[in-house]
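Job type: complex structure
Entries:
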Amino acid sequence: MTKSIDTGRRVHPGAEMYAREHLAGKLSRREFLTRATALGVTAAGAYALIGVPRPAQAQQTPVQGGTLRIQTSVKAMKEPRAYDWSEVGNQSRGFLEYLVEYQRDGSFRGMLLESWEANEDATQYILNVRPGVTWNNGDPFTAEDVARNIRGWCDTAMEDNSMAARMTGLIDPDTGQAREGSVEVVDDLTVRLNLSSPDISVIANMSDYPAAITHASYDGGDVFDHGIGTGPFRPVEMEVGVRAVIERATDHTWWGTEVYGGPYLDRIEFIDYGTDPAAWLAAAESGEVDLLYESVGDFIDILDGIGWTRTETVTAATLVFRTNQVAEVGGRVPYANVDVRKALALAVDNATVLELGYSDRGTVAENHHVCPIHPAYADIGPAPFDPATAKEMMDASEFADFEHELITVDDEWERNSGAAVAAQIRDAGINIRHTVLPGATFWNDWTKYPFSATSWNHRPLGVQVMALAYRSGEAWNESAYASPEFDALMAEALSIADADARREVMAKIEQKMRDDAVIIQPYWRSLYNHHNGNVVNAEKHPSHEFHLYSFGFAS
Amino acid sequence: MALFILRRLGVMLLTILCLTFVVFFLTNLQPNLEKLAKTQGNMRMTDEQVEIWLANRGYDRPVFVRYGEWLGVLPGWVGETSQGEPVGRCTAEGMPPLAEGEAPPAFCGVLQGNWGWSTVFRAPVGEIISTRLGLTGILMFWVMVVMVPMALLIGVLAGMREGSRTDRSLSTVSIISTATPEYVSGVILIAVFASSAVGLRWFNGTATSAMENVTFQNFTLPVVTIALYGMGYIARMTRASMTEVMTAQYIRTARLKGVSFRNIVMKHALRNALIAPFTVIMLQFPWLLNGVVIVETLFNYKGFGWTLVQAAGNNDIELLLAVSVVSVIVVLVTQLISDIGYVYLNPRIRIS
Amino acid sequence: MEPLGWGAIAAQVFVQFTPVWIGMVAVFAASIAFKRRLGLYGKLFDSTIGMIGFALVLFWVFTAIFADGIVTHDPLAQVSGLKNAVPGSPVPEGTEGGAYYLLGGDNLARDVFSRMVAGSTVVMQIAPLATLFAFMVGITLGLPAAYYGGRLDTVLSFLANLILAFPVILLFYLLVTPEIVQTGLPSFMAMVLFLFPLIFLGVLFNSRFYTQPAKQKVYLAGIAGIGGLLYLSLISQDRTPIDFWPDALDLFDIPGGILIVFVAVVFVNSPTVFRIVRGIALDVKTRDYVAAAQTRGEGPWYTMLWEILPNARGPLIVDFCLRIGYTTILLGTLGFFGLGLPPESPDWGTTINDGRRLLSIYPHPAIVPAVALMTLVLGLNLLADGLREESLRD
């Protein structure tokens, strides 16, 4: 734990304000922790601010040793900045660590950073690098490594670098690289970030899975082959679609042993059982794995039934049905027409989709992609549901006879939700067809599908997803939504550190999203996983992360 | 005979050539290449980026030329990426490593022993095929061990006395088994013998662990699933051939001479009755390949069939080509063996 | 309302199938009464196996025909609260359709019974028709290959063996993916494959009425007119590269998925039929009546279609029955890999694949279509067996 409070350093005023808000009941504890820790207050410090003792981590300490077998997809490794799956991050998480780690309780804790501080308007961040960290080839880990990685994140010339969108405050729009002087190395253990505009999500972004920290000698390609990292494990074997194996690096002293304890396991195997949950169940029943990456839908009950231990986390993970506003279908561009989009949204009752598609394991969402658990959520009421009006609107548009095609991937809950959405649109009297594509085929062209579903992971702050997914021209904006008004509102929101002040802007953003019918967003998912009862510290993480150093067996 | 085999080998070669070209052509159609670029690069690439990606890897040249290069009859492609870095087929990933200062070979295709690079698995195709084929070999071996004796037994017992009650019930069993495809029987077997719902849990519902260590528990269900479907057909063929033999003149003569029924079946009928099933068993191999694909997918056993699905689903061109070559060879070689074996076992047939 | 017990479910299901029972009784009564005048078909009723097989097949044929009257619910309608409902669950008041989910609900709360019945229509539309088309292709190519022999035979046989050397699943993966559909390849294949029935019928009547020019012209014009219109309506599809035919004359559009599946299945089956036809024709060709026809000066097509083909019909009919079963299995395989038909399609392969995911707790959504598929294939096999036995008795 860092000692920023104990050593008498000033607590960020924003954090103190949040503490007051929390105590006044305006802010849930979870939101308070997320926001306070993002501003550089430690979790312990944050608990102290609101006068609550930090809940003792009730887990038992795992025993040393053992091989943990995890059911998960095994995907091809890439350059970390281009990671597009949480699973890829997990495969390398044993040896490529992150600056900051997002905790299950919504707080952030330092990994390669010992602590951080933000100035009042969130335009300057001081990052304190953890002393005594070494790479597994013996090189010391310094502020220079941190700065190099951050500059790398700012490289917009690398076309599939998704970190660039998260680091806009550091990027010079003319050169497409890190702005001169934006990333300063103050001394061996200190880095200062100077942002061009306030950004409250910098620390949160550093915990995202593409933000893995790589060594100076790494030059793209498969990180499993390269193998140099700071983590306690080393890569052993990697066969895409089959399995990946990492083992304890015995010749490397890991910094975290003294700080957080661990690692406990000798060896971790990631085994791929395909995308069919029935196969995961079979693997669990036959004892071929100890831990499931995620349990979905009806399988949650079944796994409970076979005596596996369930863990749950409430998240802002969601499934979004979006139209692509520039997609052409037979020479026409149906979803450029806002009435068409609105009609589709009006025809769908979100609660029914939650029931049929996700067995009611979540909360109903409101078609604007801001979750009640996000700090600045503004309640603008439930999404309207009116099939009769939907039919009228569709008939009034030039696309009355148009047959919509909803394309979803062949995943248990995504296809079920897709079927439920399609059935409701059909019930409203609108012509629609539902196509389910196998995973391998679906992902090839998915950003261009005219009407499709995208699954979004949980992110700690509401603005993070919105900035990534709905601003004009963003890499992850597959709805092709382009609204200058929305962009301006987003810029405003991103500069307001105070959640209450931001909430007013968020209300406008949410209303704008709904008025423009950018998405149909039926529900927020709760996430689950199961283990065989003997695994410790492997509770489901809201962002699907495996904190492998803490995993272990109870006996 | 030698000439006959030679001619058959020639036809086989021609078939492989045509077939690989068809596969090559289909997998290299523009939409398939785009799909490849997106899975390999990233899913959010624009059309221009896709074109550059394809050009950088030499995918934008005529399909015939590239087929020639894959075969190894045309010199491997050499070019430059849009960033000006030299690239080429013979220096790409997966090709044999070069010694310091050694120039890359001009030809590097199948004829030179280079099967290429799998884009899905990021490994040399030759390596993947051999491991995966080995795993499927184990599966097939056990399928044969279970299926053939069972099928022959049922067929012979049923055909021994045509029209008897044994015949009727065994024939019905074999018809039912041919009418139940693997995806039906596999599903039912898993539900009954591997799920907690029924509670028997005798076997595992997945065969992933069998890749390292075959046990009775993890391998029974996949083996039985394939064997059941193939069994019915062989049994019916055996029965037909057995009934035919049992009505033949020499059997009647033997019976009239007072040879016991048991001896007639064992000594006289069996040998002749097994000629037809032999050819059928051989011709079953290509059929079993289908079953293998379904069962390996169902039970998550990562063998050849699973590789086929992965390669085809992801448009992994070179892997898919190798998969087709292997399966064609399996189909044609088994046909050849069945023809030769037929001649060998049946002295009445001569090859003109 | 109380859920139904098993006895009540069986009774209700039996009642729902009333039109089928009536149809079957009528067919059986008529057939048995006139069986001596009905040739091979009549003889079928001398064999128990054949009769059982025929009954099973007939059951599914009538189910497919009367599906609209048999279903209790819309096979695509989802009724809230009936997700994975057990067989015999009552439907909430006020929903359309019957009062019960007779065989339960599936994981999207659709009626399993109605889906199974509706699925029979899909299967019965595709499987026999695709097999028939495959036979026309196989016969049109197989007869001349055997009759003329020589280079034609070599080339055609090589092509047939080439297609047969492909593992079926690989072929499906190459032909039925959305990317290939985008290129329009299946549409072009449909263009070629669907031409064969036209050629077949054209040649058939042309050679028959060669000596009666008046009749010949009428028949040929009929085939060219009706067949041509059907052909063009069939191959011309909206949203595919082949969309030239004016919509006014386009009688019907086959849903995208079905056409592709249909083409793929015909393509896979044709070479096998070709080999069978060629084999039988090679044998029949040496008979005296063929030589007689040749001496009479009949044209080659007349000899092939009106002398050789009728004498090869026995084994062909048997194989036809078996092949429909095989095609049904193939359709299921496509569904199993999620290729081809749309996911909400009630056809049995797709529903089995859907249901198998939750098989261990809710077996009914998978078992019902699985049993349906098994009985149909079994019926076809038994029917083929019966036909074979009876035709051998000649």
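Summary: The longest helix of chain B spans residues 125-160. The first strand of chain B starts at residue 78 and ends at 80.
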